[in-house]
Amino acid sequence: MINVKGFKFSGISCGLKKSKKKDLGLIISSNECISHAVFTKNKVIAAPLIVSKEIIKKNQIKGIIVNSGNANACTGNEGIKNVKSVINQAVKVTGLSKNNFFISSTGLIGEQLDVKKINTKLSKLFKGAKPNKSVDFAEAIRTTDKYIKIESTEIKIGDPRIIEHKKIIKKLTIHYLIKEKVNGKPVNAVTRFHLGNGASIENIVINGNISDYGYNESFGIMVNYIYHLDKLEKIHEEYISNHQISYSDKIKKYV
User: CA-CA distance, 67 to 47, in Å (whole number)?
Assistant: First the structure.
């Protein structure tokens, strides 16, 4: 498994599993992350997801804490209290915010989570986090799986897969530039600068900067902005007043 820049991993045993195998895992980022999750459509939702569905809306996630051995599902208000207890202890250990943590559980259904076992080991979990410990995390979230669930790939300059998946990469980039927002404005600082000065997003260029720096900074992707002098004031006002983003027809087909 390759290291992921800015992320550390940890996986330990806290005693939820009778086997004493790893059952408590952590992914921790050096920065707050724009986060997405796919949730069940089932009417019965486990306690960790009830709490975490609200937290993820804040877009402030830095850490994901997962336990195996107990799903904390069908556990009512007590289950929700236990989730919040883990978050509170994580805040106490790290000094971070409650909105920085996404909690998940997997395992037996219908049994209350022994939250004390988790809370007493959180300090050890965070202290043990390292970039090369992703396998430990994968081990910690195993239930009845025969093998750990882990896979990685590394794409370098000139990799043909970049061109093969050009449309997908463009769509993801445009989603990031237009849809990912904080306080109604794009999270990307360069995009905010140009839009605030009346520019439109004109085009996305894959492999626009094939230098090492270009790939490290933006996967080689370049964004073209255009300033229409006759529309400058109108575009600027719509962005400032209504947070409306101007973009070309080239971009529109991906939105």
Answer: 13
Closest by CA to 228, choosing from 241, 247, 242, 212, is 247
- Give, in degrees to the nearest 5, the angle at Cα 231 between 228 and 234: 140
Please check whether residue 149 lies inside any domain of the structure: no
Per-residue pLDDT tens over the stretch 189-223:
999 999 999 999 999 999 888 888 888 888 889 99
Per DSSP, the three-state class of 69 is strand
- Write down the H helix ranges in 28-164: 47-55, 76-94, 115-119, 122-127, 134-140, 160-164
pLDDT exceeds 70 at position 93: yes
1 falls in which pLDDT band (50, 70, 90)?
low
pLDDT tens digit sequence for 221-239: 999 999 999 999 999 999 9
| Chain Cα centroid distance, residue 184 | 19
For residue 88, give both structure tokens: 């509170």
| Domain count within the chain | 2
pTM for this entry:
0.74
Which CATH number is 76's domain given?
Answer: 3.60.70.12
Enclosing domain of residue 18? 7-140
Q: How far apart are CA 196 and CA 190, in angstroms?
A: 10
Angle at 48 between CA 32 and CA 111, to 5 degrees: 150
Bridge partners of 104, per DSSP, are: 66
Same domain, 167 and 128: no
211: phi then psi, degrees, rounded to nearest 5: -80, 165
